[in-house]
UniProtKB/TrEMBL annotation:
InterPro entries reported for this sequence: AB_hydrolase_fold (IPR029058), Esterase-like (IPR000801), Ig-like_fold (IPR013783), Ig_E-set (IPR014756), Mycobacterial_A85_antigen (IPR050583)
Record's keyword annotation contains Signal: yes
One of the record's GO molecular function terms: acyltransferase activity, transferring groups other than amino-acyl groups
Keyword Signal: yes
Xref: PANTHER family: DIACYLGLYCEROL ACYLTRANSFERASE_MYCOLYLTRANSFERASE AG85A (PTHR48098:SF1), ENTEROCHELIN ESTERASE-RELATED (PTHR48098)
Full protein name: Esterase
Pfam families on file: Esterase
Length: 380
């Protein structure tokens, strides 16, 4: 016995409990989505009662923050075909204004409180899954006294880690606002990028720790006022809970020369906060599409500089051990001015950050590429 349920224009068939049987993908309900072919992607959704269906993706160029309309065709199948360059992209389908994951696509990517569908277009060799030795990614749970609960991180270990005995350098890699610790491995393709670089001997084998930048008790982000840093609670969790757990659990080298930190957007701001708090702990710092969130006016930046005078003095004193200080932001990125002001501030204090103004905006298309350029610079 079966009965049907309609929701958001989609029809679901509910069957009475009984022996599980595999249902072939055929008949009127059978279709492919997404379909990748010749650098085009066709997205489809069968929604007979929907009045409006669209595709939402800030990663796929040309879409901005809006929704691209899908066209209804035969069999109540809504469809949209786009020219898409090789890469990995997030998207969602909007059914009468309600965003849903693509029901025909099992590939997903988490963010903070949401899930996205994921599509990969082959041809971006630096992050395609290649025939090379592969590392492993673990979902790690640790207890945080800072937050009073359990926290999660993703940890990449390089090929051969399980059977080796040596210790490895470590990169802490932070995500942006609205994302989570899954994001750098799912849409960011960090594991594939590391695998390919290590196999090509363009990067040394390393452990990469990707923590959660948000928590139900705090956002981990905000504009600083007075002596408040952008990510004070995140800094506490990072320093008192996460790093000790990693250094106790994994075979990581613990000297400054073997520890790096980088992040995108919010994570870039957190990266700078962590670095400013302990400049002698990191030999490499990477800031992607971000900077110091001091405010918009010159007076805001003067106040920030005055409030953080001691930290800046400590950074200058420790600059000889800072081997890599790398920033990159796209020309269309709304945080480009923030990045440029950050570079100017550090240059004023006799540091020499390397800055790249690239093509692109505030999207994963840039951050995947930045990671690929940043990692070969580490631990050389």
């Amino acid at each position: 016995m079966t009965r049907s349920l309609s929701l958001l224009g989609l029809t679901f068939v509910l069957a009475a409990a009984g022996p599980a049987t595999a249902q072939p993908r055929q008949g009127p309900q059978s279709y492919i989505s997404p379909e990748v072919k010749d650098k085009t992607v066709t997205f489809r959704l069968r929604a007979p009662k929907a009045e409006k269906v669209g595709l939402s993706s800030s990663d796929i160029p040309g879409g901005g923050q809006g929704s691209r309309a899908m066209k209804k065709g035969e069999g109540d199948l809504w469809e949209l075909t786009l020219d898409v360059s090789p890469g990995t992209y997030r998207y969602r389908i909007e059914v009468d204004g309600v965003p849903v994951v693509d029901p025909r696509n099992p590939s997903t990517s988490e963010s903070f409180g949401n899930t996205w569908s994921l599509v990969r277009v082959p041809g971006a060799a630096f992050m395609d899954t290649a025939d090379v030795p592969h590392g492993a990614v673990a979902r790690v749970i640790y207890h945080s006294k800072t937050t009073g609960g359990n926290r999660r991180a993703h940890v990449y270990t390089p090929p051969g880690y399980e059977t080796a005995t040596e210790k490895y350098p470590v990169l802490y890699l932070l995500h942006g606002a609205g994302d989570c610790d899954d994001s750098w491995t799912s849409v960011g393709r960090s594991a594939d990028i590391l695998d390919n670089l290590i196999a090509a001997k363009m990067a040394v084998p390393m452990i990469v720790v990707m923590p959660a930048g948000h928590d139900s008790k705090f956002a981990g982000f905000g504009r600083p006022t007075g002596n408040t840093t952008p990510a004070a609670l995140f800094e506490d969790d990072f320093a008192k809970d996460l790093r000790p757990h990693i250094e106790k659990t994994y075979r990581v080298k613990t000297g400054r020369a073997d520890r790096a930190i980088a992040g995108l957007s919010m994570g870039g701001g957190q990266t700078l906060s962590v670095f400013l708090a302990n400049p002698n702990d990191y030999s490499a710092v990477g800031v992607f599409s971000s900077g110091i969130f001091a405010g918009r006016t010159p007076e805001d930046w003067e106040r920030w500089e005055k409030a953080n005078k001691e930290k800046l003095t400590a950074v200058v004193a420790a600059k000889d051990g800072l081997k890599v200080f790398w920033l990159a932001t796209g020309k269309e990125d709304f945080l480009l001015d923030t990045t440029k002001k950050t570079v100017a501030l550090f240059e004023k204090h006799k540091l020499k950050p390397e800055f790249q103004e690239t093509e692109g905006g505030h999207t994963w298309i840039c951050w995947q590429r930045y990671l690929n350029e940043f990692v070969p610079k580490l631990f050389q």
